[in-house]
Amino acid sequence: MPSTVYFIDMRAKYKENFVDKLGNLLEISGLDRTVKKRGLTAVKLHFGEIGNTAYIRPVFIRKVVECIKEIGGVPFLTDANTLYAGNRSDAPHHLVTAIQNGFAYSVVAAPVVIADGLRGKSETAVVINKKHFKRAYIGTEIVQADALISVAHFKGHELSGFAGTLKNVGMGCASRKGKMAQHADVAPKVKAKDCVGCGECVEHCPAKAIALVENKARINDDQCIGCGECVIVCPNEAVKIQWNASVPLFMEKMVEYTSGVLKGKKGRSLFVNFITDVSPACDCTPFNDAPIVRDIGVVASTDPVAIDQAAVDLVNREKALPGCCLKENTGPGEDKFKAVYPKIDWEIQLDYAEKIKLGTRNYVLEKI
């Protein structure tokens, strides 16, 4: 049975602006059935890296917040800390980044709560018993939330071809340990020439898996628990993530984590994809290239698989914008994401999500 995906385009008029249309979309797609009175409601989004401007505009997020409040819910904006060292790798920097990019309370009327705590270690192990993982390590504040509203910026991605709801939920809600488990099969690696033997990683390693040998940090792979703490605390960026998981394996792991985030939230999750500023790469980069297609609109659904399938179909139906990075597959009906990342089969994430019964790729698009 196909799932319903609701869609609004970018058109607006004097009596109904785009923000009003967004509120209508949320109402029709079932926000009032998802959010309960006094329910703590996690609005999961990406605050954007400093220098990136393709992320969702705060004014749109404010409308989501207003709609939740009208129902009687208690919304908070959230994301989990990044695995890599940067402007969102710990809660203080993450909060500052969110505010600098426009997500201050005075703008969006909701507080920002970092889902996995100060250093990405506030996590809850959720039993999922899937092919790759028995447990998924999810940011505790998301697990404890009464409802989850995923608001994703739909764009290209270097590892999954595209990034939408599945990645916003599966990767975005994982703690640092969970992100490490998805990205790499082995422990981080120390780049010896950059290591000065300061011992910061030794001091912070919760598994006691790091030792100084001849004034250089050395990681015991068998003892390492993959939390990624050493990557963050190294002042010289000498500890590197080993991006060694194959692309198909990465996508399957990401989808399994999505199932972990949604466990226990049946009927209490709603998914929204903004198909605007469709940049070729992730919002984690400190820049964004020109969009590959025009701004198309917004889709919403209670099915995390159907909404991503609908979004990728809407993008691929478009003609590529002149001046973007695409050199082939520029016509309507041609695969834009395959043109950006020719070695990545983005369908893997959708196929596997359907296989583990997260949703269906079969959908009906209902334009509002």
Shape: globular
Oligomer classification: single chain
Could you say which structural class the secondary elements and strand pairing correspond to?
A: alpha/beta
Q: Between the first and last Cα atoms, what is the distance in angstroms?
A: 21 Å
Helix content: 25-40%
- Helices, by number, come to 14
Overall strand count = 16
Query: Can you give the mean pLDDT?
Result: 95
The major pleated sheet works out as:
8 strands, mixed
Q: Which H/E pattern describes the elements?
A: EHHEHEHHEEEHEEEHHEHEEHEHEEHHHE
Q: Which range does the strand content fall in?
A: 15-25%
Largest sheet strand order: 4-3-2-7-14-15-1-16
Radius of gyration: 20 Å
Q: Can you tell me the residue ranges where pLDDT is under 50 for at least 5 consecutive residues?
A: none
What does this 3D model show about the protein?
Helices cover 32% and strands 20% of the residues. The protein has helices at 18-29, 31-34, 58-71, 91-100, 105-108, 140-144, 165-170, 176-183, 200-204, 229-233, 247-262, 304-316, 336-340, 347-355, and strands spanning 3-9, 40-44, 74-79, 112-114, 123-127, 135-139, 147-153, 155-157, 161-163, 189-190, 210-213, 216-219, 239-240, 269-275, 297-301, 363-367. The strands form five sheets. Strands 4-3-2-7-14-15-1-16 form an eight-stranded mixed sheet, with helices on both faces. Strand 5 and strand 6 (135-139) form a beta hairpin. Helix 1 (18-29) packs across helix 3 (58-71) and helix 11 (247-262) packs across helix 14. It is globular and about 70 Å long. The model has no long low-confidence stretch (mean pLDDT 95).
